[in-house]
Write a structure and sequence with these properties.
Number of strands: 12
Bound molecules: iron/sulfur cluster
Radius of gyration: 22 Å
Oligomer: single chain
Number of domains: 3
Helix content: 40-55%
Shape: flat
CATH superfamily of the largest domain: 4-hydroxy-3-methylbut-2-enyl diphosphate reductase, catalytic domain
Largest sheet: 4 strands, parallel
Order of helices and strands: EHEHEEHEHEHEHEHEHEHEHEH
Structural class: alpha/beta
């Protein structure tokens, strides 16, 4: 049995930076320190932050005092204005790559272009980007939705930083038929693209692959989709306890990959659980042999 971990698995630069900033803020500041929404899509890390006195607050209206940390996904300009009015101190941990995309959206809106954002409508990054578009942005989740858009002389298309490259290309193709002059910006971040490539390569090499991460993490879900297209025996798990002997049955090479918000410990625990399963299996096999 061989266990292979995908290259570039583990927290991405933007998430690591946001976590570091949150912990530094907690050390420096008196009073309440909150994050606006979960800092990362990972229940285990959120529980750890809570134990350190960094609370996650979902609703802007429930923030009345102290310091708030903006997570790596970024927020719309409205949110900054709201916090300013309430005189709440802001520590901005928006990933610099997401900041760049926000600036691009604002620039394209200034040029009066319709802006198609290929992303997940409910994802905080997409919601933030829409806020910079001055009502010129639309979030599209599939090429089918892109095909329903009206014909335009000019339009721009870009992606949520964690989007699946394969889907982005398909939406771009659909938009070509709907636009005379289409400006394409591949804003999928380098770390996401490398991670996606490594996961798809691994899916072609192993017999079962575990994608480890929070179920509400968009980039982890993208990895699951990418791997599942290649390898039907792809499993999306939040923790090692979800690995069952049935999932491992007959597989000699097993892969593990994780999203941008999957902590290294979660990967290590998955490795351990797989090893334990195999040890138990071989023990049972040898026991059966002895009994014959
Ligand atoms: S996935 Fe990329 S853009 Fe998103 S937070 Fe991580 S490094 Fe930044």
């Amino acid at each position: 049995m061989e266990i292979i971990i995908a290259k570039n698995t583990g927290l991405c630069y933007g998430v690591k930076r946001a976590l570091r900033m949150a912990k530094e803020t907690r050390r420096r500041k008196e009073g309440k320190v909150s994050t606006l929404g979960d800092l990362i899509h990972n229940p285990r890390v959120i529980a750890d932050l809570k134990s350190q006195g960094i609370l996650s607050v979902d609703d802007l209206n429930n923030l009345e005092e102290g310091t708030v940390i903006i997570r790596s996904h970024g927020v719309s300009p409205d949110v900054y204005r709201h916090l300013k009015r309430k005189k709440i101190e802001v520590v901005d941990a928006t990933c610099p790559i997401v900041k760049k995309i926000q600036k691009l959206v604002a620039k394209l809106a200034g040029e009066k272009l319709e802006i198609v954002i290929v992303g997940n409508k409910q994802h905080p990054e997409s919601k933030g980007l829409i806020g910079y578009s001055r009502d010129r942005g639309v979030v599209i989740e599939s090429e089918r939705q892109a095909a329903t858009l009206a014909f335009r002389k000019k339009r721009a298309v870009l992606a949520q930083s964690t989007q699946d490259l394969f889907l982005f290309k398909r939406v771009v193709s659909a938009l070509i038929e709907k636009t005379e002059e289409l400006r394409v910006f591949n804003t999928i971040c380098h770390s996401t693209q490398t991670r996606q490539r490594a996961t798809s390569e691994l899916a072609s090499e192993v017999q079962a692959l575990f994608i480890v991460g929070g179920k509400n993490s968009s980039n982890t879900y993208q990895l699951f989709q990418i791997s599942k297209r290649i390898l039907p025996r792809t499993y999306f798990i939040e923790n090692a306890d979800q690995i069952t002997p049935k999932m491992l049955h007959g597989a000699k090479k097993i892969g593990i990959s994780g999203g941008a918000s999957t902590p290294p410990e979660a990967i290590e625990e998955a490795v351990e659980k797989i090893k334990q399963n195999f040890e138990q299996q071989s023990h049972e096999e040898s026991r059966v042999q002895c009994q014959r």
